[in-house]
Structure formats: C-alpha cells, structure tokens
Sequence to fold (128 residues):
Amino acid sequence: MSVRIVRLGTERTEGEGPRLGTVRRPPRGVRKDAYATGNWYDTWLPELSPSAELVASARAAESEADWAAFVKAFRKEMGAATPARLLDMLALLSRSGDFSLGCYCEDDARCHRSVLRELLTERGADIA
Fold:
C-alpha cells in the first residue's frame, strides 16, 4: 500500500488508487463530471495547494534561492492546523491503502508536489 505523487491529467497506472487533486483551481475547460474520467482527480483537496501568492512566486522562481524561498514559505503554510492534519491523515492512510496526490505542473522538481512528497515522507508515509 502506498501513496503516489503524480501529474494530473496523465494516464493512471495500475494500482494507483483514487487521485486527490492538490491544486488551487480545477482544470480549465473540463466539466466537473469529467474530472475523474479525464484522469484529473477523483476528489479535490485545495487545502494542500500553495496560496495564490505562493503559486505566483513559484512560477517566477528563476534561481535555486528563489525556489528555496518558495519551499520554505509553502512548508510554513502546510504547518497550519488544517493542512498539517490532512498530511498526518494521508500518511496514516498510505500504510493501508493506495491513492495518489497530484498537480498539473510538468516538472516535478519545481512543483509543490515534490514538497508534499517530502512532508509525507517525514510523517512516515509509504511513498511509491
């Protein structure tokens, strides 16, 4: 059993389980009833996405220092009560079931989902 970190909108892999969309906004131009069938997500968890201000700073990051500043600020946001409880719950669930978390970004290394992977690992999640 494990959690996978995926890019939303890509083909699902066998055993991936339900997809949780950790994005600020739903996919543009996609009807709500097509989110799951279009490989976007089965349920939406915007509480695990960066604030609009942080999304802008991540997109504008040109240097490693810029990216590190984003990571630090996003980790701070994820330390708030609601996202911290969600991360704790997901880490626990990863030990008994399969599911995936995702975002739209093409480059995993410059996406908040890489930070979510670290935060879940720190909580003892089983990461695929």
About this structure: The helical segments are 52-60, 64-78, 81-93, 112-122. The two ends are 8 Å apart (CA to CA).
